[in-house]
Predict the structure.
Amino acid sequence: MTKAEPVVLAVDVGGTTIAAGAVTQAGEVLLEERAPTHRDGPGRAIECLMSLLERVRDGAERQGHALTGIGAGVPGPVDTAAGRVAEHVPHVPELAGRALAAELRERFGLPAFVDNDVNALALAEWRFGAGRGARSLIVLALGTGLGAGIVLDGRLVRGASGFGGELGHTPVKFDGPPCWCGGRGCLALYASGRGIGEAAQARVAGHADAALLRAAGGDLLAITAPLVFRLAAGGDPVAMAVIEEACQALGAMIGTLVNGLNPDVVVITGGVAASLAPLETRILKAAGEYAFPRALATTRVTIVPGDKRTTMRGAAALVFYETARGEEER
Ligand SMILES: [Zn+2]
């Protein structure tokens, strides 16, 4: 029998699910454990993530794998220089301000790295996915919210305090409506799952005969992004207008990215990406209205439907990225 190859422990902490796994250098997920984030009760997500990692560790050790590190992707910004999760963590408030990397290091006796989940996703697309071989890539992750990760000339851009890549909250309409982040006219209002749902709700509120409202059983809050996409595909003019605006907003953002940074690749992923895939031509047409043609011609834009597994592989990619960086600096 050949000796089992080394693996890293990787964990993606989401608002509803924590997914942990053992991942090889090639990005193969060998063991996987999942649990609801708040399984152990409110405020106990860290206990849940520690127990999932222990189960994966025990499983990997039983199979003879050497463990070389731990990576974690968490929602919200992370100040990696200070080694702390930021004070605002959507849906997992108990992570706020925690020195999670140090805690993992101590508990498992392995090198440990923690970063924002979309930064981890960007590293996954760069190392294993649509951005392989690129020097620069930007990942736009369209889920409930809208996050982004930026790799420029081989470096993940984290910014001065971990906010690098918060492109969901850059304005695409400077006099647009107020955003839940405190700004206004943000990209997330138009192109995230929550934004698409709420934009549709605003359009049909008070119109009991609107197709969207009828399809939602008359419950305004039951109008979600998947429903809007479904009705838009069926020709409902209100739903079509919302999706049209989503495509235009994404096009404006791609124009900004292409003109400002001219990356090799822009990857659009996340839960909403599958619904956007048939609209790729429409989104690129919008990008063409804002981008320098030569800049856009040299940036490949690709839509990749995403899942939790990719973020988990991203947490593993974070370990490989940081380990290589440490060796470079030595
Ligand atoms: Zn915002």
User: Anything to note?
Assistant: The mean pLDDT is 94. The first strand starts at residue 7 and ends at 13. The two ends are 35 Å apart (CA to CA).
